[in-house]
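Now for a sample.
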Amino acid sequence: MEFYLQFCGSEFFGDAANPAPCCHRLTLLQNLYSLSTKIASTFRFTVLDQRLSFCSKLCFAIGGAPNQVAGSATAFFLQIYLLDVAQINPFQASMVLFIGKAWGAMTDPVVGFFITKSKWTRIGRLMPWMVGCTPFVVVSYFYLWFVPPFTNGRFIWYLGFYCLYQTLITCFHVPYSALTMFLSADQKERDSATAYRMTLEVLGTLVGAAIQGQIVASAHTLKHCPHHNMSTGHLGNGSGAEIVKRIVYMIAAGVIGGVFLICTVVMFLGVKERDDPYISKTEKQIPFHKGFILVMRHSPYLSLTAAFLFISVAIQLVQSNFVLFCTYAVDLRDHFQNIVLTILVSAVVSIPLWQWFLERFGKKTAAFCGITWIMPFTVMLVFIPNLVVAYVVAVSSGLSVAASLLLPWSMLPDVVDDFRLANPHCKGFEAIFYSFYVFFTKFAAGISLGVSTLCLEFAGYDTGACRQPAQVAYTLKLLIGAAPVAFIVTGLLILLFYPISEDLLDSLFSACCFPLVVL
């Protein structure tokens, strides 16, 4: 196009020695008008064709909600379920949580590799993965909350079904995340769809905790405890209290499984996957391992990933041990489900606040303000364990949870833009940034879950007992107070070395947009 315009300019004006004749100029003007009309009509068709309706965006967002519903339920309640309902010992529970998370982390790049090799079908290239694995996800999730009739092999049962669930949910989540790029070629439409997705995912987290918490709350009240501190394991597997606990957890699993099926059907009916119009058919791609090395050498990515790795471990420690803490350390077992609900409501409400804050004061400043907010309040709950303080801590913790969810996904695109400018000839490495960020955070979360449950084993946790020794309460206070603070401080110190400031972001924006203006 540029060459044609230069050629037309020389032909239109001619030169000083040989000016172009008027009839020649008229012919060129007609050709240019015809060409510009075709380009304009093609552009209008492309923009209109790529525009997403409200229904499509909403259906796409609904498709991502069930993953967060199930993830929220497992994050808050799986640990206490394994210890008090399934009644496996703390060491075995720590192995289930760690190996399951680590297995899920390892399956992310593997599933991504196989998806890139998938062929296009009538319903798309990614949609068959999500639709095909959904029934198996529901079955594996239900049996994860089912207590088998035998006792000796329960560790293998839960380890197997947790790893299976992690594999299947990866087969759903990886293609769902990539589906954003195949909704539309218009960047603004994709950004709008992503905003819908984030809103529904946070609401899904809230719904998951609400469904699970309200249904299973009765399983952890003192009315099921004998007056003496006898372990419920001594009461026999057929005791009425144990049967009630198992039934309510299975009911919650069935409800969440039904939500998963309904949301997937809605997404399948309401979302149309498009083929990638910009994929290179002839250009030879750089091998995966070389791209991985380039990404891992990019210092802004390393500092951002390392910082939020420690921060996510801190949030995971609070999230996974909070129900145990309320039950055994501060005697709030009758209120924990409402406190968890308060945390998530606060997170949902504060996301627009943090979006405004990062636009007004910058992303790095927002990260420091948002993440540090949780530290004094969790320590306050450890030293002042009463109901009013618990709700104050819940509201403040929700603010930090929202910041920890929003900011890394807001800062990663800036890192990708910086990488593109530093490596202008490298293309198609965006997936490496996102998939390995998820890999590292999942792996770290698995380690933190395993180690925290192992600490309870060393503290003398009595599986199935209604009351725990004082050392267990002390350990839970450390896992809720001191340990998260240490991880957050470490993460924020690493974040100090994150080099992308707001001035640099303006430069990146100008550098990325200038070639488009020239072309």
